[in-house]
Amino acid sequence: MRTEVKATLTVGLIVAFLCFSFLFQGISQHNRSIDQLTKDAGDKIDQHVAGAQGFSFSLYDERIQSFIEIHPQITQAFIERDRDQLMLLSGPIFNRLKKENPYFENIQFHLPDGTSFLRVHEPETFGDSIADKRPMVQSVHEEQLPISGCELGLHGNYYRIIVPVFADGIYAGAVEFGISMEMITDHLRRTINLPTASFIDQRWLIQQSLPPIEHSNKQISNNRLLINASPDSLFAHIPDMENMESNSPIFHVRDLTINDRHYILHIHTLFSDFNGMPYCGIIAAQDITDLVASKRLFLLQTLVTCVGLLLLTLLTLHFTFGKMIRGMAQETERRKDAEKTSHSTTMFLKSLIESIPDLIFSKDQDGVYQVCNRSFTTFFNKSQEAMLGHTDHELFPEEQAKRFIASDREAMEKGLFRSPRLWHQGPDGSQIAMDTIKIPFRNHDGQILGIIGISRNVTDNKKTEDALKNAAKQWATTIDASDDAIFLIDLNQRLLRANKAFYAMTGTAPETTLNTLIQDITHPEGEKTACALCRAHESKQDTTLIMEADTTGNPMGRPIQATIKVVRDLDDQPVSIFTSLHDLTYQRQIEDQIRSSRDEWERTFHAITDLITIQDSEMRILKANQAARDLLEKDGKSLIGQTCYQAFRGQDLPCPDCPGLTSLTEGKTCSEIIEHKTLNKLFHVTISPIFDPSGKILHLAHVARDITDQKKMEQELFQAHKMDAIGILSGGIAHDFNNILTAIIGFAEIARFNTPPEDPMYEHLEQILQGGRRAADLVKQILTFSRKDDELKPTPLSPHLIIKEALKMLNASLPKTVSIHQEIDQDCGMIMADSTRIHQLIINLCTNAFHAMENEQGTITIKLQRKEVTAEELAGEKECTPGPYIVLTISDTGCGMDEKTRALIFDPYYTTKEMGRGTGLGLSVTLGIIKQYHGLIRVESAPGAGSTFTVYLPALVDPMLDDKSTNILAATNMATGSEQVMLIDDERSILAMQQTVLNYLGYKVTCFNDSEEAMEFFTTHPDQFDLIVTDQTMPKITGIEVIHQVLKLRPHMPIIISTGYSSILHKEEALSIGARIFLRKPVKIEVLAAAVREALDG
């Protein structure tokens, strides 16, 4: 075959190969564009779905907890199964959430038996069993734990959050929030502008044993069902495809043709059910019709061009082959020679560059790396193949790449760039310092082709420089922080460096004094003879000298201590002289202050009116203050040298109860009250040991305070307290007595009203009424006598009510590991005490019981009973007398106490708790309260057997109540009515009397002896009554609580509250909380009738 034919065929094949390569690259580029478009769309879908989930779904996990915790009345209504109240309270919250998020679909309450109690979005639908259809509901009922996740509902796909509700630790049901998954598809349609729909994995339905769903629009594969897609939508025309059976959660269907247009389907299985199983996902259609058309046009144009180019090449070769072959041969030889020379030069330069340890590199004008040596690639831990042909942006982090490009630009613009020696983070994360130089390189025309750079690792040099700078800075900072004047001079006594104190002392500045003779600075006016400091500098010896303020040549004019040190090199040769001048003025002032303090102590010692002596270990008096001398020195004989017992008692031996002996023996402060019979005085003697540094007792400090007058005043105060106790006790009879008087006077008035005046019984009834009025006046006088202050005053009270109030607070604060067992006798009687102090007593004892079993399961048992205590049981209790007592017993199952601890628990500030967890005052205060009310406390405990505290408080006998009666008006003047009235009182006799009166006056009366039952009835019949008349002091719900509960349901309901006697409720307080009228028992029937009428008419 001829050479021309061979060459033509070869070139033709080459051209054909190039055309094919160009065609292949074009197709590949189109495919990459489609792939990138697919990836971008998929990333957007994932990003927006994740954002919507985090912003919308996760938010409701917290809001449902807030819904339960912030609205306890909703939880209470659910627990009580009050559907109407529950709807009334939950409806506004559902509407608010629906307004905030239109996709918020439901709030639903589920009963433990699997039925729906209330759908707030559909309140008329309830009672149906749904647990078998709703796996999430069934799971919450079984596990009693909160869950969240996606779940299929009757009307579509939902994200549900279901949390359990408990009543006193018992499972009461569950609350559910539901948000439509359409929120995700609608959000995607708006944000990525693609047709979007949701699908469900049918395998999940089969695994959950759920029936086929009725609202799916299309089954697009064996395992995927479209949900809620409209019939005319794009997704209704998707053909069934086998390639949609991928097990990957995210995949794409390429080049799908629907209605003559080309699409990519993005299929993302994004959501799982509450068990984490893949459940449903999003399908989005991306239109690529324009890209497909562009690809087809490119193919057509490329094929036409390639065929034309191939024909043109073959024709050109046919007519110009010979001439071209000769030229090519000559050019080939010339290039071979040039290549050999260039190769040799290149290999030499490459070997040279590779052998240099510095980092060498070059880039073209576009910042693309053309050359880099081995040191460069090793430093950045990359291969040459990974570096060459790439830019800084492709190789390095953004900030580092910007810094490199900026230095390249500066080198090309200014002709040179040299980097400052700064710390940077190296490729391995360590801190390094680099010294980099960059210069531009040009062609033969001077045009810049790129830059050449060389970098050197100067980390070690940088560390040395920084260390020297830091050392110099620290040294300068250290000496500047000193108040001493410090300076450094050379061997010629010229100043090298000084601190701020030196310049302040000399009134100079560094700019004018460095390298100046030190004598010219410290003695600017000169001196005839060298001062001691200058002579010390000249001697070049280490020395210390003191210069007083008036010493010749003292540079400070104040007493100073000069310290001179010669600085030597490694060969022990002197190189400079260090001098420190320390001002002794403050030290001299301290010495003067010590002398002054000693004199002041002496004056104070002798001014103290207590008798103070300092004694040695043999109790001989070494020093005595003036008070001791004035009282104990006799016949001019000094106390000094006498023993304590000789001076105080005139005896030759220590007294048997001498605290000094105990202090010497035990090494602690001891005190004793000692009577001085000769002086007819009583002293409180305190003796404290004084130790030497080794801990040996050196002296005794003996302080004797004359407490004769103090003891007399204590006795007078004790007598006054007994009188106060009598006054306090008298106030305790009021409450029950007034209740008795209310019934007596009320029924007597009713009986007299029904008795003709001529009947002898009429006069008898009048006498009963007069006696009742006198009794009421007497109660009033007793209360007036007993009311001495309004705060913390003892009053008659029922301790079981205080216990109930205290336990409410304790139940709210104690952990579930601690239970409370009660054995309370509500009829045990009353005590005379302040309710606040009794409340404090109960809280203190219960808190101690809790701390004894804080880290374990335990029980606190509280008992209250009445007991007749005999004299034998009160043996040793001087302040307690036999009789009836209210006995409060508080026991725990905690760690218990040993005898030593039990003996100390009532001491102030004694505590067994760790630092910061107790003051040690709780039981001390408790003991004080009990003693104040003439009671006693006993403790039984053993290690590991728990503790029992038994409190005995005197019981009240025949407590009486207050208030006066007034003259009875004529019954004919009493107002009548026909309204409905509710009476609440725990005294049946009072209820019977008031019901008789009000029924007679025409009112329709309903009576309740139990306030709790009254409130339950009123809650279900709030509109049945026109007026409520209630007592204040009742066992379950007090009158104040009745007012609060009634006004919550009927804000304008008229209420009358009455009391025989109460320390916590007064007229002003009663009216302020909503009562119309406040009455004090005993109440006359005409006053009751007038009050009822006034409350109804007002």
Give an overview in words:
The protein contains 32 helices and 39 strands. A 6-stranded antiparallel beta sheet has the order 7-8-6-11-10-9. Strand 12 and strand 13 form a beta hairpin. The chain is flat, with a radius of gyration of 52 Å. About 3% of the residues have low confidence.
How are the secondary structure elements laid out?
Blueprint lengths: L2 H68 L1 H8 L3 H18 L3 E7 L5 E4 L15 H9 L3 E7 L2 E12 L2 E11 L1 H11 L3 E6 H6 L8 E4 L4 E4 L22 E9 L2 E12 L5 E10 L1 H67 L3 E6 L4 E4 L1 H7 L3 H4 L4 H4 L2 H17 L2 E2 L4 E3 L5 E12 L5 E10 L1 H23 L3 E5 L5 E4 L1 H7 L3 H4 L4 H5 L9 H8 L3 E5 L12 E9 L5 E10 L1 H23 L3 E5 L5 E4 L1 H7 L11 H6 L9 H8 L3 E7 L4 E11 L5 E10 L1 H23 L3 H20 L6 H27 L8 E3 L1 H15 L4 E7 L6 E3 L1 H18 L5 E12 L13 E10 L6 H6 L17 H11 L3 E6 L5 E8 L25 E5 L3 H13 L3 E5 L2 H10 L6 E5 L7 H11 L5 E5 L7 H6 L4 E4 L4 H13 L1
Parallel strand pairs: 29-31, 35-36, 35-37, 37-38, 38-39
Antiparallel strand pairs: 1-2, 1-5, 3-4, 4-5, 6-8, 6-11, 7-8, 9-10, 10-11, 12-13, 12-17, 14-16, 15-16, 16-17, 18-19, 18-22, 20-21, 21-22, 23-24, 23-27, 25-26, 26-27, 28-30, 31-32, 32-34, 33-34
Pfam family, one: Response_reg
Protein name: histidine kinase
Catalytic activity: ATP + protein L-histidine = ADP + protein N-phospho-L-histidine
